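User: Once you have settled down, look closely at the record that follows, taking as long as you need, and be ready to discuss the fold:
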Amino acid sequence: TIIGYVYFFTDSKIKLGQNRKQFIEDLIKDVKEIRGDYAGLYKKRDLEQVLKKFVFFRNNKVKKRSFKHLARFKFQQSKIIRVIKNTLIKCRRLFIPGAPAKIFIFPCFSDFVDKQQEGVCGFVPRQNVIHIYLSSNAVHFEKRLKYTVAHEFYHAISDKYCKKWNKSILGSLISEGLANNFRIMAVGGALTSGLIALSKSNVKKSGQR
C-alpha cells in the first residue's frame, strides 16, 4: 500500500547572490503539473507566491552561508524520508485518508523558524498535500519534523470536512487545537504553547480583567 509520495526541492546548485524571485523560480523550475495542480496550487505563479512567504518567512536578509548549507539535504534525504514514513504509518492508525499524501520538501531561510520552531514548519495548500519547510541551518530536526508532519497530516485530511474553519479566528483556533491533539495521539509530544485549554476559573478571571 502506498501511503505517500515525497518530493524534494532542495537543490544545492542554486547560485549564490540571486534575488528571492530568481531563487524561487530556479527552485521550482522542475515542478510539473500533477493531476491539475502544482504542489497543491492550481497555478505555478500561485506556488511562487506561497514559497516567497514561507521560504523567507519573516527574514529580510539571508546570509550567504545559509545557502551553502543546502548541500546537507542531499545527504539527509534518506533520514527525512524515514521520519516521514514512520510518522505517516502512525497517523494512518488513527485515520486512513482516501488517497496517499503528497509531501513537498522545500528549504527555509528564517531566523524565526530556526529559533521558535526548531528548524521546521509546515503548510497545507489543499487536501492530501503537505508542504514541509526545512531550515538550511537545521541539524537535529527529526523530532520537530515528526511533530510537524503529524500536525499537517490532520489539516490535510480534515480539509474537506472543515473548509469554513479557516475563514474565522475562532475556526482557525479550533482547527489548530484539533491538529495539535491529533499529533499528540499519533506521535506524542507536549501541548503546543498557546493552545492549552483554560479552566473555567481562568476563563472567568480573564473576563474580569
User: Anything to note?
Assistant: DSSP finds eight helices and four strands in the chain. The two ends are 55 Å apart (CA to CA).
